Each structure stands twice: as structure tokens, then as C-alpha cells.
Amino acid sequence: AAHNETQRLWKIQVSLESRMVAAVGFPQVEITLPGKKEPVRAFSLEDIDRICGDAAGHQAVRAQAIVAFRKRQEAWDHLDDVLGYSRAEKAEIRSDRMEMKLADALWEEPAVSVAGAVAKLHAILVTGEQGVSQEFPWPQMRSALADLVRIGQALQPGSIHARK
Q1: In a domain? residue 7
Q2: pLDDT of residue 161
Q3: Which site from 26, 117, 121, 134 is most exposed, i.e. has the minimal number of CB atoms within 10 Å?
């Protein structure tokens, strides 16, 4: 249940972020310094300071970049207030932390049944695997989980319910 809630909140957060990026773009600016061909992206005022430095010839570019960045940041912040992106992100982070605390508590307790071992292995898979990876150890862990489910169902019919 905790994992499902974290996933639900993550989907909301990602959807809101996508809407914000489509509407106002990330708070960033491109800076092209005199004598340079390629622009450099700045994602903060500190980035602008680092990129532009103290050179006298960069001060006008620096000032323009600061104004442009602040304008983008204000647009982002305003839309964030309207849509609730930051609130959704914080809720997802809190849920993820709670999910990990619950998973840690589960892993610390010794299993007293095949169903308990299945629950622990399932928790490892859903918290650790991003997508359905074919890289070691994920396929092997899924195989071991399927074996445990099959054995548990044979030993104690109805005690373990396989999810697809």
C-alpha cells in the first residue's frame, strides 16, 4: 500500500512538472559570453555568477542573464503556486521516506513463513527495481520470488496470492 501511494504521488508530481515545463519552461537561461560560440545554461543565480565571472566585458551579459533568469523563476514560482507542484513533490518525498521506513522494518524482522519471505523479497523488488530490468540481479530475484510463491501455494494453499 505504501509503495502504491508513493507511485500515485510520483505520477501526480511528474504530470504537474510536465505541465509547468510545457507552460513556462525550467527556470534557466542560456548565456553566450563575448568571444564564445556556444551558449552555456545557467540553472541558478550562482551558475550565472560562476559562468560570467568578474571580467568587465561579461557584466552586461551577466546583468541580462540575471534579469532573464529572475523572470523565468518568477513565472515558474507563480505556476507552482497555482498548480501545487512543490506541494506534490514534498508529498511524494514524504511518502517515499515512509515507504522506505516500512520496508526497512519489514526487512529487519525474520520471516516466520514462506509468505513472509515472499513479502520481503517482493518489497525488495518494488523498492529497488526501476522498471522491469533484465540486468543482474533483477531477473534472478523475480525468478526466486516466483519459486517461493509456487512453493508457498503448494504448501499452504490460499496463503499467498500472486500478483500479475
Answers
A1: yes
A2: 80
A3: 134
